[in-house]
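Could you help me review a protein record that somebody else here produced? What it holds is a sequence and that sequence's fold in token form. I need someone to confirm that the token line plausibly describes how this chain folds. Take the sequence as given and treat only the tokens as open to question. This is what I was given:
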Amino acid sequence: MPKNKNKGFTLIEILLTIAILSVGILGVMTMQIRATRSNAEARKVTESASWMSDQFERLMAIPYDDAQMAPGATFTPVTNIINDPAFPEIGPYTVSYTVSNADNPIPNVKAIDVMVTWNAGDNRTLSFRYYKADTF
């Protein structure tokens, strides 16, 4: 009796395996592209939070009665300020703030709204409200 000694894979099996692997690899590539975009957006949010914190620290150093801290005072620096020690290169961000009387019953407290805006295809804004009290 002759034995069938054919061993190996058929062409159909190999093509089917390649098709399944291709679908899996395309899924992984799509996931990688989305992860890269999300990381870039997260970097922008982190940088804008850093600029916001920097502006807040500058405002806390200003005396309570200074003209820059008067209710209604606003400030918006020019975007991409270069070679200014007060504002190092800020890239695509615009930092601004607005001072108002706090919306609470505590006397001698001012609310400071600090906003950072950047363009990521559409304008994005990150803002926080800080409070500054008149300390004696």
About this structure: Residues 4 and 92 are 71 Å apart (CA to CA). Helices lie at 11-61.
